[in-house]
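Lecture 7, part 2: worked example. A protein chain together with oxa(dethia)-CoA.
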Amino acid sequence: MIRARVIGAGACLPSNVVTNDDLAKKMDTSDEWIQGRTGIKQRRIALPGEKTSDLALGAARAALTDAGIDAGELDMIICATTTPDESFPATATIVQARLGMAHGAAFDVQAVCSGFIYGMAVADSLIRTGAARTILLIGAETMSRLLDWEDRTTCVLFGDGAGAVVLQAHIGLGTNADQGILNTRLFSDGRLHDMLYTDGGVSSTQTVGKLKMQGKEVFKHAVTNIAAAIAASAAASNIPLSEIDWFVPHQANQRILDGTAKKLSIDPAKVISTVALHGNTSAASVPLALVTAIKDGRIKRGNLVLLEAMGGGFTWGAALLRW
Ligand code: UT7
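Predicted complex, written out as structure tokens:
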């Protein structure tokens, strides 16, 4: 049985660090409020002129180096982003050109904060059906460009960054002992649009709009939906949650991570958290957390790793991998 196995991972963050105290100098907020409500201490904000494709390219190069391959070996590039450089073409094609790759295919996936999980489901399907052997999957965002910097209830929460993995076909036995993606589970409910959206777009206002969020409502749905996605993914492979070594969640709020772990009786020490350093980087947050835990040695070959996310749409989902 063909499995999609991660053979390399990498990340790229803007150099510009913005702390809670930096924000408190510009608006009516405080380090105490932001840390107490969210766990966020700082975020990276792209400098003027720094684009999503710049971060995506940095993460892509790091992932290719980690995998020990060059772009010539890639069949496809998938970029999960809500903040593309341009309305079209896809940011993935910009990365493709900048990697010097003139073959294969490149396209974007848009599922906001769940984008990396959606991209992983697409990449997994393409690899398992034999349509592609090696895929570069990127989650890259410049969420700072979509924020209303006059709205303290949202602008303190988000940051910019990118993370990427290289997925490659690998022959397994078709059991849970196989390395690679064991299953993915995707969900959405478009009726919940008004809780998290941008008040603009190409066909409506001919602007990109600004992010609008009913934070409290999103919070409640996040814990419920992420817990449901985790349970669905574990059940799909018939693996008890206690056997999963690492949970790599979307990084929106430490209280969501803690609430989900509590709801499912997951040991909080098994939950990777980078929200303090990066804030919510939408589609980049899962790969950024993943890369952090790979590089610091927590995630090791053979571990069971469950990735999960939830975001605008609403969209949510999970992916279970044997590392
Ligand atoms: O990526 C996926 C989607 N995003 C999320 O998952 C985010 C989900 N939501 C959340 O993380 C939380 O709901 C927030 C962090 C957004 C807000 O936390 P909360 O505990 O729900 O706070 P709240 O909205 O109830 O606000 C409490 C108070 C309000 O003041 P009053 O009305 O009680 O006087 C706000 O005006 O905190 C005030 N407030 C702030 N104070 C200082 C809101 N934002 C700020 C701020 N600094 N930045």
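Residues 2-171 form a domain with the Peroxisomal Thiolase; Chain A, domain 1 fold (CATH 3.40.47.10). The mean pLDDT is 98. Keep this in mind for problem set question 3.
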